[in-house]
Amino acid sequence: MHTDADHLNPVSGEAHGLFVLYPALSQVLPSLATLGPAAASIQVPAHTVLFDTNAPCQGFPLVLEGEIKVSRHAPDGRSLELYRVVPGELCLVSSASLFRSTPLAAQGISTRATRLLLITPPVFVQWLEAPVFRNAVLGLFAERMADLTGLIDAVTFQRLDQRLAACLLGRGQALALTHQQLANELGTVREMVSRLLRRFEREGWVELSREHILIRNSQALRALADGQPA
């Protein structure tokens, strides 16, 4: 992974922005001011693999700009998005790996140009001694567990057509998405998504073109997503 690292001056505007995003960092030891090269921000382009399944955790990411998508991948090539990490949020998979000293359970990829601070495992362990930081991490576990429980319910109990309808909503009327991208988000295969999208098109709910989907009837999609007659 090619990265450009810049020292994070603890009195700089960037460091101040980091404290705004992560207030708990103002009370941790060692402080950012004493970390030296360990407080280097990293700039990566879109689609950079930041960590991978079954690899050792190299550090705890704090996102300053951009976004990280965290996903699980099956041997047959399918993937399921678990959650995304944006500035001010914490990564459940990384913290769980560091807590238990076990390999990472998912993959993290930048969805766009991303700037982050990567806290080394020894520093992360020291920071956990600060109650405010430890409470922030434990609060993350509670929030992410609620998100993952909802995801499990959707995968287990909702039909794929309902999940696809819900996936299409909330992105605007014109979507620049491939069938494969939707399949990856839903944890299924492209052929199933294409079949359902053609059904949606026959119903007049969407209009399909190459790598684009135009929403024609969002109300019908919403009804389907909610399990109601469309």
UniProtKB/TrEMBL annotation:
GO CC term (a single one): cytosol
InterPro entries: cNMP-bd_dom, cNMP-bd_dom_sf, Env_Response_Regulators, HTH_CRP, RmlC-like_jellyroll, WH-like_DNA-bd_sf, WH_DNA-bd_sf
Domain spans labelled HTH crp-type: 158-219
Name of a matching Pfam family: HTH_Crp_2
Keywords recorded for this protein, A-Z: DNA-binding, Transcription, Transcription regulation
The keyword Lyase appears for this protein: no
Top-level taxon of origin: Bacteria
Gene3D superfamilies xref list: Jelly Rolls, Winged helix-like DNA-binding domain superfamily/Winged helix DNA-binding domain
GO molecular function, one term: DNA-binding transcription factor activity
Name assigned to this protein: Transcriptional regulator
Protein species of origin: Rhodoferax lacus
Source taxonomy: Bacteria, Pseudomonadati, Pseudomonadota, Betaproteobacteria, Burkholderiales
